[in-house]
Every structure is written in structure tokens, then in C-alpha cells.
């Protein structure tokens, strides 16, 4: 099918403003002459505040307030931005007497300027009772030391959580007779993989501005992906009615899931609510690295049973996930490690098992990060499949082609959903050719001694949370015949303001410039769960299409009144409505004018969409690596990705999303290290040590699409935002393994261990 | 101390404290394009031109700039407009937060190397981190501009 706007390459609506550096972000658009808010951080992984004295700190000139655990409401809440019923247990106070990780909040200081606040922070006198921390996730469950011993800890949903066991979630699930099938397989391998708590590292750190509006309500302007959840969480934290909170987001300097948790908002919200004065918090990079909301550290044990011909009959996965000090997204991320990895091998699968436990420890709390558990699970399962291929002596592409899920199949490990749109096979075919798998998969030694080799991986994700996410859109006909599209989804750089406008323009058959977009503000936007879980294009996008279609019907009603002709005698032609019997056209401008004069037919339509399923996008990634045998350094010289995101709404943005995700994935695979001291302190607390890829660290990226058509999505679209981070770790692992003869079971793949393996091989 | 700085062509004489950083000074003067992404001189978001040369404004004391000229993207609009459309045409600005620093450094690049190779571009801009784009689209945009310029000249 050919479209006017869909699958085209229009510029992002905000492109020129952003590229020319116009003020657009929280710190640019809110007044600087407000209270500066900062947080005093715990130096210990686990401690109780015995005594805290703020008298001297309060005397620093310019200091407005210093708050401690004695000043805050005692009801617990969760900072995870999730829809009712919130899966993350309520385990958090704004400030707590018990400190649960190095960096946990001890006190909040607000003052007229940064200098005064910095000074006051140093003058708070705290006596700590230092407690034994739980630092190892393997021994956390049923550890004698409890991270959350408190009695008002509250799990809203039955998910196996038990704070008296350091457990945030626990589940057992299997279908088919796993033991029996494994016993009857020719080959069974069992491997354990570990992934590190990577940081999203959005370039804009967490930041929030708060003021009291002229109704006396708390007005929050924040860099958040989830305005509606933010309103609820702030009200919960402050223990005030939700009606007293308004949350708005300006432009967001990147999110990747980090801004799906209320990391920063509650501190200035608390300050402004109590002082009634405007305030602002801006996190330092160090705070983001140590008190943020990174990917969950996971350890996954994969057992795969296969026949000598490569038929994969059984996958058994056990995931142990570390949520850290608080529960945020702990019970939900872990599920994706199995449900987004095992179904890739649906074709011949006779049995599977997926069990998990999620534990509390005294380290930085984890959260949502692009891929959300799928990234970890896919690294493990895809690495194991590549190793199985090498054990069986089968080409890693062939084993995948033999076992991959195909369109129309029911995926038992994906809640028995049907793969209604799936071009994974075509992705593989295209990738093979584009990459030249035939030749590049052979290990080659270059004249300079470097070793070149290749690896492959497949991935899937979801498109929104099935049976849960709600996306809404309001489309309004405006004076002279342009439109306003109002959404509650958040463009955090993903370009959804533009892609959703494209959907509206396609439906309304008009130029993209005719659609103004507004989002997001809890007072104005129609309800939307927010921008996460790869939901915006699929869930909200469909709502946009439906709202635009309904608006066309109402415009016809208006013309019907104007011209006394029935609506079925009309055709919407973009610039207006044509009356078929007379050939007369009523322009949009005339309809818009009529809508404002003696009219009772609304030209502002809101539609809401939700779906009982979540059609997965699929993709294939192929990596060519170059290993320097003298240093062990691994470079990705070529990466090919072919994606089935259904219909790509904006070809450019889909490409750039893919490139960006792959580069983040390369960082996870090769450079983004997270290590702790024996006291639980994070070593990589700045970009100096936490190495996100620079432009000199990547070789060529080649992206293509093999889009299927998803019948329930807007113009056949599924999602793209998250899936793209999932293939680099396993593909690079496989590429390196084929060169050095050894798979890696922990990330990142460091030069030292590559060198060790090369030594061993000699 | 009392200093005089020419900021985007305008002379400013002002009392600054000894520990004032240039990034805070220019933002105070409403040059909001200048962003802070780190505290360790790693991200390049804060890039400005000091007497025409790119520097990291987060690592420069304001008093060191006394008597010099500073340009932020606010003062380089015309030069930027020549090529940023090509970057936009690739969808290379995602969240956009890294872009002002990268655009300023690209201006410096194009002044120094009017006809850079891809490798020149990568090297020159290597200190400008971007977490969203994966960099390739930025390169495609700059390349498209250079090709367009060559076509024009031909
Ligand atoms: S703010 Fe990161 S280099 Fe200046
Ligand atoms: S566009 Fe977001 S950091 Fe570069």
C-alpha cells in the first residue's frame, strides 16, 4: 500500500528549534530564581539514622528549609510509573530513618542559591548506626538481614513478594513435560549468564521544577515520560489529594525508561508544597550514576534441549533479578526475560519452563531501561542457542531458521498469543544477504593479525502492555481548518509528536503542517499510560487514527446540517467535504467556521484505545567484530539489523531509533561496566569511568526493514523503540566466541578476558 | 572580580566570583542552548567558541575568559542554519539535548576543514556524546550538506 505520510521521511516537528538550541527543556523554560533543592546522600549501604542535627545547617544564610525523615509523611509508596494495579510494592518514604544503599536520601535542603545549599549539606550532623548490608543477590533471599523489615511495607498485587524474605517477586511457570523432553534430546546444554545494571545515561539528567499555581495547587514541570503516573505518585508521596497536583512535561532530553520512575520529582514537590515557594532540582551526573534507576542486574540459567539436526525442543530458564534497595519495576521487568526470549523458538518447542525470583539488596535501586528485562533474557537465550549451534556443528543462522517463530503460530511462552504479523524469517533472509553472512561468518585473520568473525541474534519485544495500557488522543478542528492533536504520551526524543501527527495527517488527508501537537499535561491531555513499554505508536497511534476518523464523521454531520444533504452522500477529501450528488465541495474553513456558530456538533473528538494483546516486533542483528590479539580489544566493525516493526510510520526516525538502540547495546556488550566496592559503593560514578560509546567506537551500521502488517495497529504498525537494544550483546558474544573459542557468560566482554581466552587457545 | 566578556558580539562587564564557571555565566545570560551533561569534561554538550575555538564551558572559569570573545549557538544562528536542516532531514536530532554542543563543534570543524572526510568528522566530533542517535545519522546529515555545497560550487 502506498501512503502520503506513513512510511515517509518527514522532519521531526521540533527539529529546527532543537538543532538551533532554542529553550525547550525543563531547566530552560522554568525560572531560575527559585529555591535550589539538593539531597544529602547516605555514605553507607545499610544504616539507621541514630541522630540528625540540622540546626547549624539551617542557619546558613539563604537556607529556606532542611528536612529529615522526621518531617515527611509516613505512608509508603512506589516511585515506579506503572498502571493500576501497581506491581511494585509500596516500600518507599520521601525520607526514611533506614538507609538502604550508598546514595539513599538522608535529608533535603532548599535554599536561595547553590552555594548556600552546598554549604548547608556539609553542616548537617548525622550519627549513623551502620548495619550489615546485603550486597550479593545470590544470598539475598532469606538472608538474616532484611532490606525492608518495616511492617507498613505493602504489596498491592500478589506476585510472590515477601519483605521478610527480601523477595520482591517470585514465580514458577512451565508447559509440557520439561524433564521428559530434555531426557529425550540428543544434546542438552546448561549455561548461566550475568548482566550488569547498565545506566540509561540520558544526556539530560533528572530535573524537576515545582510551583504553586493560582488555585493553590502544586504545578510540577518535569522531564518525565509519565505525566499521569507522576501525578498519582507525587500525591501518594505527599499524602495529598490527586486533584491538587498538575504535572506537565516540556521537551525531554532522553529517557530510555529512566524517566518512567519518579527519581527526582518528590524532593522539590515536597519542598514547594511545604514552603509554597517555587523550587527546582537538577541531578548531577554522579547522582544519576549512583542514585538513578538502571537496568536490573540479572543472572539467568538457560537449559536448552536439541536434537542433532538442530531441532530445539525445550528451553528452561531461571532468572534471578536484583531490584536493589527498592522495588521499582522489579516484579515486572523480570517477566520479559522469559516471555520475550523463549517464544523466539516457538516452531518446534515441546516444553518450556520459566521460573524467577527477584530480590532486594542494599545497592542502587533498579528501574526501567529500554528492553526492560527482554534485553537480559535475549542475551542469555540467544547466546545459549549460538553455543548449541557450535556444539552441534550447525550454522547459527540455520539453527535459527529451523526453529524460529513464524507468522500465524501460537506462542505458548508469550501468553499463547498468536503471531498475527511476523516477518522474522524475512528479516533473517535480508540480513544474511545484506551482511554477507556466507563469507563474513568465517573466521579470518587479517594481515595485521587482527581476527575478524561474526555472530547473529534474533529479538522480539512487545507493543504496549496487553490488557493494560491505555492510549488516548484528542483531535480538534480549528478555525480556518487546521487541527490540534492533544496527547498524554511523551515525546522524549523518540519523535512521537511527529509520528502521531503523521497518523492524523494520513487519516485527515492533509499536510503535516496542518496538525499542531500538544503533549503532555495532566490538566489538558486525555489520559494515557505514558510513553513506555513500546506502547505509543501501537496503542496511542491507533487512538489518533480513531479520533481522526470520528472527527471526519462529525464534520460530515455539520455539512449535512449546512447543506441539508445526508452524510452518506459525502466524501471527505482532505481539503473539505464533497457532496457526491451535486459535486459541490464545502471547505474545511467553512466547516470550521460553522462549528463556531450556532452549532452543537463537537469538532473535538477524544478516542481511547487499549488492546488485549501486544503484537511483538521482531528483528535480526548481525555483528562483525575485529579483535586485536595483542590487547584483546573488541571492535564492532559492521552491524546489520533488519527489523519488522510492522509498517514503519517514519522511515527516518525508525532508522535512527534502531541505530541508537544498537549503539546502546554495543555499550552494554563491550564498555559499560558497573562494579561495586566491598562497601557497596559504585565505582563508575561518572562518564569518565562509565564508558558509553562515542562516535569513534562504532563501525558501520546498516539498517533495513522487513515490515509485516499488523492488523490491529495504526496503518499496520507495531513498535520499534525498545527491541533495537536487544541483539548486540548476544550477537557480539557469538562473534567473539567464534574467534576465540569461548563464549562469555558475563557482560561487558572485557579485553582482559578476551586475551585470556586467546592465550588458552594457543 | 570585574571582568569584561564579549558574549555573542555584546560586551558584558560584570562582577563574577572566582569560582564561577563559564557555562553558568552564559546560561545566566540566557544562552540556554549551552547544556551540562556531566561534571567530568566528557560529554561536549557545553561546547562554545572562545575566540573562535571550541572549548568546554563547563571546565573553564569565567574569569579566565576576561577580555575574550565567547560565542554560543545563540550567536551562531546564521552559520548553523546553513547545515542543520540537513541533519534534521535525517531525523538525527532525537531528544536534541546534545545537539547545540555538537552543532557548535561542527561549525568549528567546517571552519577548520572545509572538506572533511568521514573520518575527520568522526575524530573532530568524538568528544560530543549522543545517547540517542547512534551518531550515523548525524554523519549522514553533515555529509549531505557537504555534498550539497559541492554540487552548488560545481
Ligand atoms: S558538561 Fe560535559 S563536557 Fe561540559
Ligand atoms: S539526540 Fe539525545 S543525546 Fe543526542
Unreliable runs of chain A: none
Number of helices of chain A: 20
Could you say which overall geometry of chain B the principal axes of the C-alpha atoms support? globular
This entry's quaternary arrangement is heterodimer
CATH hierarchy, class of the largest domain in chain B: Mainly Alpha
Walk across the major sheet of chain A and give the strand order: 3-5-1-13-10-11-12
* Strand-pairing-aware structural class of chain A: alpha+beta
Which ligands accompany this protein? FE2/S2 (inorganic) cluster
Order of helices and strands of chain B: EEHEEEHHHH
CATH topology of the largest domain in chain A: Aldehyde Oxidoreductase, domain 4
Strand arrangement, largest sheet of chain B?
2-1-5-3-4
State the total count of DSSP E strands of chain A.
30
By CATH, the superfamily of the largest domain in chain A comes out as Aldehyde oxidase/xanthine dehydrogenase, molybdopterin binding domain
Instruction: Specify the number of helices of chain B.
Output: 5
Structure description:
The complex is a heterodimer of chains A (762) and B (154). With 762 residues, chain A is of the alpha+beta class. Chain A folds into three domains: 15-22 and 466-609, Aldehyde oxidase/xanthine dehydrogenase, molybdopterin binding domain (Aldehyde Oxidoreductase, domain 4); 31-131 and 201-291, Aldehyde Oxidoreductase, domain 3 (Alpha-Beta Complex), CATH 3.90.1170.50; 297-461 and 613-761, Aldehyde oxidase/xanthine dehydrogenase, molybdopterin binding domain (Aldehyde Oxidoreductase, domain 4), CATH 3.30.365.10. Chain A has a seven-stranded mixed beta sheet, sandwiched between helices. Chain A is globular. The N and C termini of chain A lie far apart (56 Å). The model of chain A has no long low-confidence stretch (mean pLDDT 97). Chain B has two domains: 2-75, Ubiquitin-like (UB roll); 77-153, DNA polymerase, domain 1 (Orthogonal Bundle). Chain B contains five helices and five strands, in the order ββαβββαααα. Chain B has helices spanning 22-28, 77-88, 99-112, 118-124, 136-153, and strands at 2-7, 10-15, 47-50, 53-56, 69-71. By secondary structure, chain B is of the alpha+beta class. Chain B has a five-stranded mixed beta sheet with strand order 2-1-5-3-4, with helices on one face. At the A-B interface, α1, α18 and β30 of A face α2, α3 and α5 of B. Bound molecules: FE2/S2 (inorganic) cluster (FES) (2 copies).
Amino acid at each position: 500500500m502506498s501512503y502520503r505520510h506513513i512510511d515517509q521521511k518527514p522532519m521531526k516537528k521540533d527539529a529546527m528549534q532543537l538543532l538551533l538550541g532554542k529553550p525547550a527543556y525543563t531547566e530552560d523554560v522554568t525560572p531560575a530564581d527559585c529555591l535550589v533543592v539538593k539531597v544529602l546522600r547516605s555514605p553507607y549501604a545499610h544504616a539507621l539514622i541514630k541522630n540528625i542535627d540540622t540546626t547549624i545547617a539551617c542557619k546558613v544564610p539563604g537556607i529556606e528549609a532542611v528536612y529529615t525523615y522526621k518531617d515527611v509523611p509516613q505512608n509508603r509508596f512506589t516511585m515506579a510509573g506503572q498502571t493500576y494495579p501497581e506491581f511494585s510494592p509500596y516500600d518507599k518514604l520521601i525520607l526514611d530513618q533506614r538507609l538502604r544503599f550508598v546514595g539513599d536520601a538522608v535529608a533535603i535542603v532548599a535554599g536561595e542559591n547553590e552555594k548556600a545549599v552546598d554549604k548547608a549539606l556539609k553542616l548537617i550532623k548525622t550519627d549513623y548506626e551502620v548495619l550489615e548490608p546485603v550486597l550479593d543477590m545470590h544470598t539475598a533471599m532469606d538472608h538474616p538481614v532484611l532490606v525492608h523489615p518495616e511492617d507498613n511495607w505493602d504489596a498491592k498485587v500478589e506476585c510472590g513478594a515477601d519483605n521478610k524474605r527480601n523477595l520482591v517477586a517470585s514465580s514458577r511457570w512451565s508447559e509440557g513435560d520439561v524433564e521428559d523432553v530434555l531426557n529425550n534430546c540428543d544434546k542438552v546444554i546448561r549455561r548461566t549468564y550475568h548482566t550488569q545494571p547498565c545506566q540509561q545515561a540520558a544526556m539530560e539528567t533528572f530535573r524537576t521544577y515545582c510551583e504553586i499555581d493560582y488555585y493553590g495547587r502544586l504545578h510540577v514541570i518535569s522531564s518525565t515520560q509519565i505525566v499521569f503516573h507522576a501525578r498519582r505518585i507525587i500525591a501518594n508521596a505527599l499524602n495529598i489529594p490527586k486533584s491538587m497536583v498538575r504535572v506537565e512535561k516540556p521537551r525531554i532530553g532522553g529517557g530510555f525508561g529512566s524517566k518512567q520512575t519518579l527519581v527526582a520529582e518528590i524532593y522539590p514537590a515536597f519542598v514547594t508544597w511545604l514552603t509554597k515557594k517555587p523550587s527546582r532540582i537538577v541531578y548531577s551526573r554522579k547522582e544519576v550514576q549512583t542514585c538513578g534507576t538502571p537496568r536490573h542486574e540479572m543472572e539467568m540459567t538457560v537449559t536448552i534441549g536439541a536434537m542433532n539436526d538442530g531441532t530445539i525442543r525445550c528451553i528452561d530458564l531461571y532468572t534471578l533479578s536484583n531490584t536493589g534497595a527498592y522495588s521499582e519495576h522489579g516484579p515486572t521487568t523480570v517477566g520479559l526475560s522469559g516471555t520475550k526470549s523463549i517464544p523466539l523458538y516457538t516452531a518446534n518447542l515441546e516444553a518450556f519452563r520459566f521460573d524467577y525470583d527477584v530480590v532486594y539488596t542494599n545497592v542502587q535501586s533498579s528501574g526501567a531501561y529500554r528492553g526492560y528485562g527482554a534485553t537480559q533474557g535475549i542475551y542469555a537465550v540467544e547466546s545459549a542457542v549460538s553455543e548449541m549451534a557450535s556444539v552441534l556443528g550447525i550454522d547459527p543462522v540455520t539453527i535459527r531458521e529451523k526453529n524460529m517463530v513464524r507468522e500465524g503460530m501460537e506462542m505458548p511462552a508469550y501468553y499463547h498469543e498468536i503471531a498475527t504479523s511476523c516477518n522474522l524469517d524475512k528479516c533473517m533472509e535480508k540480513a544474511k544477504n545484506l551482511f554477507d553472512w556466507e563469507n563474513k561468518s568465517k573466521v579470518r585473520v587479517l594481515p595485521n593479525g587482527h581476527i575478524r568473525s561474526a555472530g547473529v541474534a534474533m529479538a522480539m519485544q512487545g507493543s504496549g502492555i496487553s490488557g493494560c495500557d491505555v492510549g488516548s488522543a484528542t483531535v480538534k478542528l480549528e478555525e480556518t481548518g487546521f487541527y490540534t492533536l492533544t496527547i498524554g504520551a511523551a515525546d522524549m526524543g523518540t519523535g512521537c509528536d511527529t509520528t502521531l501527527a503523521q497518523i492524523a495527517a494520513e487519516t485527515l488527508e492533509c499536510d503535516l503542517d496542518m496538525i499542531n501537537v500538544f503533549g503532555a499535561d495532566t490538566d489538558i491531555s486525555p489520559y494515557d499510560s505514558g510513553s513506555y513499554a513500546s506502547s505509543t505508536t501501537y496503542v496511542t497511534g491507533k487512538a489518533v487514527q480513531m479520533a481522526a476518523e470520528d472527527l471526519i464523521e462529525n464534520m460530515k454531520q455539520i455539512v449535512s446540517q449546512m447543506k441539508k444533504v445526508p452524510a452518506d452522500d459525502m466524501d471527505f477529501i482532505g481539503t473539505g467535504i464533497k457532496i457526491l450528488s451535486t459535486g459541490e465541495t464545502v471547505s474545511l474553513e467553512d466547516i470550521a467556521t460553522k462549528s463556531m456558530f450556532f452549532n452543537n456538533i463537537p469538532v473535538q473528538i477524544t478516542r481511547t484505545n487499549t488492546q488485549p494483546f501486544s503484537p511483538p516486533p521482531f528483528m535480526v542483528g548481525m555483528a562483525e567484530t575485529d579483535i586485536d590479539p595483542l590487547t584483546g580489544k573488541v571492535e564492532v566493525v559492521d552491524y546489520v539489523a533488519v527489523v519488522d516493526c510492522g509498517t514503519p510510520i517514519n522511515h527516518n526516525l525508525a532508522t535512527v531509533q534502531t541505530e541508537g538502540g544498537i549503539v546502546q547495546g554495543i555499550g552494554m556488550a563491550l564498555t559499560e561496566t558497573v562494579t561495586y566496592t566491598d562497601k557497596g559503593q559504585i565505582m563508575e560514578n561518572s562518564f569518565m569511568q562509565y564508558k558509553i560509546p562515542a562516535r569513534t567506537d562504532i563501525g558501520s551500521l546498516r539498517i533495513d526493514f522487513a515490515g509485516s502488517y499488523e492488523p490491529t495497529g495504526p496503518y499496520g504498525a507495531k513498535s520499534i523503540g525498545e527491541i533495537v537494544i536487544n541483539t548486540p550483546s548476544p550477537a557480539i558474544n557469538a562473534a567473539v566466541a567464534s574467534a576465540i573459542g569461548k563464549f562469555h557468560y558475563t557482560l561487558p566482554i572485557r579485553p582482559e578476558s578476551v586475551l585470556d581466552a586467546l592465550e588458552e587457545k594457543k | 572580580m570585574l571582568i569584561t566578556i564579549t558574549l555573542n558580539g555584546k560586551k558584558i562587564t560584570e562582577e563574577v566570583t572566582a569560582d564561577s564557571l563559564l557555562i553558568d555565566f552564559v546560561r545566566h545570560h540566557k544562552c540556554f542552548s549551552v547544556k551540562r551533561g556531566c561534571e567530568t569534561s566528557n560529554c561536549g554538550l557545553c561546547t562554545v567558541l572562545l575566540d573562535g575555538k571550541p572549548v568546554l564551558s563547563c571546565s573553564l572559569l569565567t574569569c579566565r575568559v576576561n577580555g575574550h570573545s565567547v560565542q554560543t549557538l545563540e550567536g551562531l544562528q546564521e552559520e548553523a542554519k546553513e547545515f542543520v536542516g540537513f541533519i534534521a532531514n535525517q531525523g538525527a536530532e532525537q531528544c536534541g539535548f546534545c545537539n547545540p554542543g555538537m552543532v557548535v563543534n561542527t561549525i568549528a570543524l567546517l571552519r577548520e576543514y572545509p572538506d572533511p572526510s568521514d573520518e575527520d568528522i568522526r575524530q573532530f566530533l568524538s568528544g560530543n556524546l549522543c545517547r540517542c542517535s547512534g551518531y550515523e545519522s548525524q554523519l549522514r546529515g553533515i555529509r549531505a550538506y557537504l555534498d550539497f555545497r559541492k554540487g552548488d560550487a560545481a
